[in-house]
Design a protein that fits this description.
Elements (H helix, E strand, L loop, with lengths): L5 E5 L2 E5 L1 H5 L21 E5 L2 E4 H17 L7 E6 L3 H12 L3 E6 L4 H11 L3 E4 L5 H10 L2 E5 L3 E5 L19 E6 L9 E5 H14 L7 E4 L6 H14 L2 E4 L5 H10 L4 E4 L1 H12 L12 E4 L6 H11 L3 E6 L6 E4 L13 E2 L4 E5 L12 E7 L6 E2 L3 H7 L6 E9 L5 E6 L4 E3 L2 E3 L1 H9 L4 E11 L2 E10 L7 H9 L10 E5 L12 H10 L1
Parallel strand pairs: 3-13, 5-6, 5-7, 6-10, 12-13, 12-14, 14-15, 15-16, 27-28
Antiparallel strand pairs: 1-2, 3-4, 7-9, 8-9, 10-11, 11-21, 16-17, 17-18, 19-20, 20-22, 22-23, 24-25, 26-27
């Protein structure tokens, strides 16, 4: 279907928002989102972190100095630079500084395992790796293992910088910001073939601008930023959208419910965006009397990254007295595809209307035609936010991205009579746990590498507001097989959110005559236990 104009309420005035409205006034490059504000805005807070405040003027100066420092450290236009970090002022400034140099930021969560970090590094052939060691103990450990050297960034604190990769070949610099890559985010890293999603400046700025408009962000807002900037949701829809609007980000490296409760009460937080499990944990602790939830300045709450349960939505709305907005997206779409509107909260778990300027279509099983309205089909999207492709993987890119720009989300959806989307299932095996993508093949590969495992299969099991990872293993000698040893093995090789919550040892896994594991039977078994 074509990209319709979107009706929305801007400070009490009903207007129509189109693709042209979002594109109008977009800067070309990420670093220009802080340069677009007038000098009179320089004194306004841009970033809060652990008691430190950085104004827009200070951030702009810090980004310029950091870019000069990176350049002196041998970073060139077209280089890939890995940022192994957790949320911090340094991470935000590094992304913007690399944009100034036309280098690519490969943003990586410091909590990934050694194997995941190494695979991503090998695949992207980064020129250098920056470790956000001052904020993240995990980043510090990765940096120590790599022999990184201590550096100081004026106004931003210390970090560690890995050795120069003399073999790194820079990518060509595109003159068109819709073609020039700004950020690369990896959707997997443990298997031998990680996928690096190439997101351009235009991709990310389109989402930043549309999110700021749809959430009615203004320069008086203070946004709680605990979603990892290494995840595209935290990067574009939270971090970049806030800076685009001239608002302030309150950066948190990790989710800590008592600290969030305190910030909501004391710090004037006006927007909170998270995954459903974050809200569930807040309610759990509040119901147990461990925290009090009082948010006098909060005006907007949003849940994304994983399915939103109606029971949780209702409970959150009753506790805070505000609608809990919902949305849907994926890394390959930078990420937002649809979201509920601030002026039209819903009483269901729809993921809302497609964002302005995005075309959608729901295809039948053989992809020969669109399904009728109200019927379930495979969701395809096209718009300025769709990725450039997977890095160094044209075949994988071709599997999901058509030559005419249509992206196959791999998800099944239906369209309501009012144009709102409902995600009804996944055609892929993707598991979304606490807002993070878990790809069964990579988990299965790690489990299968443990001595004694013959075959492994991983499925997702829905729980309230989330999904669990459940593993089934067939082993060579069941009496002598130690599940505890397997769990220790996985701790060293998988991030916490990828590790199975339950591991079931079976005499044999259900399979077809050709040996293909029947995962639908395993899903039924997982849900029954």
């Amino acid at each position: 279907m074509p990209a319709p104009a979107t009706s929305f309420d801007v400070r009490g005035k009903r207007e129509m928002l189109t693709r042209e409205d979002v594109l109008a006034g977009l800067p070309d490059y990420l670093h220009q989102i802080i340069e677009r504000h007038p000098s009179s805005h320089d004194h306004k807070a841009a970033l809060y972190e652990c008691g430190q405040t950085i104004s827009y003027g200070e951030l702009r100066e810090a980004v310029v100095r950091l870019a000069e420092q990176f350049e002196s450290d041998g970073i060139r236009a077209g280089d890939r630079v890995m940022l192994v970090a957790e949320n911090s002022c340094l991470l935000v400034a590094s992304v913007l500084a690399l944009s100034r140099l036309h280098a690519w930021s490969v943003v990586v969560n410091a909590r990934l395992s050694e194997g995941e970090i190494d695979n991503i590094l090998a695949h992207c052939s980064a020129r250098r790796v920056l470790y956000g060691s001052a904020v993240s103990k995990d980043a510090a450990a990765h940096g120590e293992r790599a022999g990184a050297q201590l550096r100081m960034a004026a106004g931003l604190g210390s970090y560690h910088l890995g050795p120069l990769n003399e073999h790194c070949q820079p990518e060509p610099v595109e003159n068109d910001p819709a073609r020039q890559v700004a950020i690369m985010i990896y959707t997997t890293g443990t298997t031998g073939a990680p996928k690096g999603v190439m997101l351009t400046h235009r991709n990310l700025l389109y989402i930043a601008h549309s999110a700021s408009l749809l959430r009615q962000l203004c320069n008086e807002d203070r946004v709680y930023a605990v979603l990892p900037i290494s995840h595209v949701y935290g990067l574009s829809a939270v971090c970049l959208a806030t800076l685009f609007a001239g608002a302030a980000l309150q950066l948190e490296a990790r989710f800590d419910p008592p600290e969030l409760a305190r910030a909501l009460r004391d710090d004037g937080i006006t927007l909170m965006q998270g995954v459903p499990t974050m809200y569930a944990r807040l309610l759990e602790l509040a119901d147990a009397g461990h925290i009090e939830l009082h948010a006098p300045q909060l005006r907007f709450m949003y849940a994304g990254g994983s399915p939103l349960d109606m029971t949780l939505k209702t409970a959150v709305e009753q506790r805070f007295g505000l609608p809990l907005h919902n949305g849907y997206g994926m890394t390959e779409s930078s990420p937002t595809i649809s979201q509920t509107r601030i002026d039209a909260p819903r009483g269901d778990t729809s993921v809302g209307l497609p964002i302005p300027g995005l075309e959608t279509r729901l295809m039948n099983n053989d992809r020969s035609a669109c399904v009728a309205r109200g019927e379930v089909g495979e969701l395809w999207v096209r718009g300025p936010n769709v990725m450039k492709g997977y890095y160094r993987a044209p075949d994988k890119t071709g599997e999901v991205l058509a030559a005419d720009g249509w992206l196959n989300t791999g998800d099944m959806a239906r369209l309501d009579s009012d144009g709102a989307l409902f995600i009804v299932g996944r055609s892929k095996e993707l598991i979304i746990r606490s807002g993070f993508n878990v790809y069964p093949p990579e988990v299965e590969a790690v489990i299968a590498s443990f001595p004694g495992v013959v075959i492994a299969a991983v499925v997702g099991r829905p729980v309230e507001g989330n999904e669990e990872v459940v593993a089934f293993v067939q082993v060579a000698n069941r009496p002598s097989f130690d599940v505890a040893d397997l769990r220790l093995f996985l701790v060293e090789r998988l991030s916490p959110y990828k590790r199975p919550s339950h591991i079931h040892v079976l005499d044999s896994l259900p399979a077809t005559a050709s040996g293909k594991v029947l995962k639908h039977q395993l899903k039924l078994l997982a849900e029954a236990n």
